[in-house]
Amino acid sequence: MEKQLCALLGILLFPVLLCASTFTDSRATYYGTPDGYGTPSGACGFGEYGRVVNNGYVSAVSRALYKDGAGCGACYKVRCKNPQLCSYDGVDIVVTDYGEGDRTDFILSPRAFSNLALPYADKELFNYGVVEVEYTRISCKYPGFKGQVTYKINENSNYPYYLALSVLYVSGQNDITAVELWQEDTKQWKPMRRAYGAVWDMTNPPRRGPITLRFQATTSLGYTYWVRSTNAIPKVWKAGGAYEATVKLITK
Asked: Could you tell me which residues are beta bridge partners of residue 225?
């Protein structure tokens, strides 16, 4: 109900003032890793990138935020609600995994969970295990990305028979909800399949010339639209190649 009201007011009035700072109450916990960073085996399919992106401030999220994979790569500000232990600034995290806890929306990496705390209070906060939090969606801003959509040809791809893409970064508060390739011989857009998480794939992709993509994006207020990349994947593509799609997303 709160999200629907925010969407309505955002359309009728002024979304930046009314909706950008809306926080939702929830709970958060953490998972263990040897170095405090994320895990390379997260459900989003990011691999090693999912372990270290955003300096390891990452999280698994509940089904409602995971959105069958559309929520992968989304960014949130999470704040603990215990003023004796927690910083008001909280932590900005990237969604890299799916996970259900004890009525939690976030299962944070150790680095992210520690960053909820005031200086020298992190050990006590870890002892709680699960904490009351509030969160809000924010635009993703972290080093290494200049474009609006960055994707990588998945290592499991096999030229020219099988193409899989991992969408690594999306600017603003957008979720990628569909990906299509231009089929030159039939003059039609051909949908890719969401294999899992942020990974999209297709058997027998187009072989005639470079591959042009378009992305369906949905904003945090529920507006859905298509953007076509003006640059293309080279005709002879290789697994592991990363590309910045030249598109214009809604970033506010």
From this structure: 217
